[in-house]
Amino acid sequence: MLEKTYKNLSRIWMVVFAIGFIALILKFITGERLAGYGSYVPWGLWVALYFHFVGIAGGVFALGVIGYVFNLTGFRENFRVVIVVSVAAVITGLFSIWLDLGQPFRFARILYAPNFGSMMAFNAWMYTFFIITAGVIFYLTLNKEKQTDFHDKKRWILPLMSLGFLFSIAFPSQSGAFFGVVDAKPFWSSPLLPILFLVSAITSGGAVLLLVYTFLHYEEFDLTHQPFKMLRYTIIGGIIFYFIAEFAEYSLVFWSPNSHIREAVELILFGPFWWVFWFVHLGGALVALYLLLKGKTYQIVGTGAFIVAVTFVSARLNILIPGQAVAELKGLKEAFYHERLRFDYSATLNEYLIALFIGAFGVALVYFGIKFLSQFTKKKLGTEL
């Protein structure tokens, strides 16, 4: 039964990857002509995926470190899996933002000629240092030397984990700050934004980690045991906290008739893409909550975790797009007419197909990373570090 499920999932992945790859080739042939963004709304679906994936990376690593430090069953034994999933998510996020660049092959300039007054340059270097730190931790957890040498190396693991933990918390928080420093966009100038980004990162990161652990350890799946218990409660708590904070922000907007962000919030709730909030964001969260609360089998709980991991990208979209879709100057929307001078952003078919390719790319990184890990360490996953 399980082997059949794996085969079906593999076939779905191959179809998604192939279709997305064709869309990717068309993107490189035509440039950005097939994309729906323009001068007024320059950041679209791929940028939202970037913030979503780096948030997942931060959430996965932060939860992994917490489980490791508190010696929760399943975390310490599988910390290399945490590293693989987290680094794979960072690389996927960077790949997503790389595709959004007008000149993608100039990306290296941010590393050899950075401007650290730019939040983008700061973030790029932070991701680089995180990947290096995660790689060093991975190496230090390999017990290939004599036992005394391994214990000498192991002294460095917790300090480096602490550094990686700071990076992982900074990923989503810095993303919120990234928007907050844009003074021309009132909707983004909210002190709640870094908190919302952090909570959504922990929630979606916990969902991805629960999904991976469920696939790896379905035979011993038990919601009363770690790590399933901790991750399940983290996801449930994260969803509830996020929507309470979101309700607090939106309700205050409608309580104050002269709020300067009212137009943006109305776009989220009642605009052309109202269904993203009500169906994908809210509806997806309610379905996931029901499955996580009521589910007893790994299939149901895994489905709930998958829904959270996918639909929480709407949390990024509901912040990213409305913040750009409101004109800074009254009358600007009517002043000029051109298909690239519109405040009404709508992702095109090419953008959606490439988004599927990005997701398939991330899944492949995790799958082959774990395969490599099991071969490289020459031991069953779940063995004590």
TrEMBL record:
Pfam families in the record: NrfD
Keywords carried by this UniProt record: Cell membrane, Membrane, Transmembrane, Transmembrane helix
Topology with respect to the bilayer: Multi-pass membrane protein
GO cellular component, one term: plasma membrane
Location within or outside the cell: Cell membrane
Transmembrane segments: 12-29, 49-69, 81-99, 119-142, 163-182, 194-218, 230-253, 273-293, 300-321, 352-370
Keyword Lipid metabolism in annotation: no
InterPro entries assigned to the protein according to its UniProt record, in alphabetical order: Electron_transfer_protein (IPR052049), NrfD-like (IPR005614)
Family (UniProt): Belongs to the NrfD family.
The protein's name in its UniProt record: Polysulfide reductase
Source organism of this protein record: Ignavibacterium album (strain DSM 19864 / JCM 16511 / NBRC 101810 / Mat9-16)
Origin organism lineage: Bacteria, Pseudomonadati, Ignavibacteriota, Ignavibacteria, Ignavibacteriales
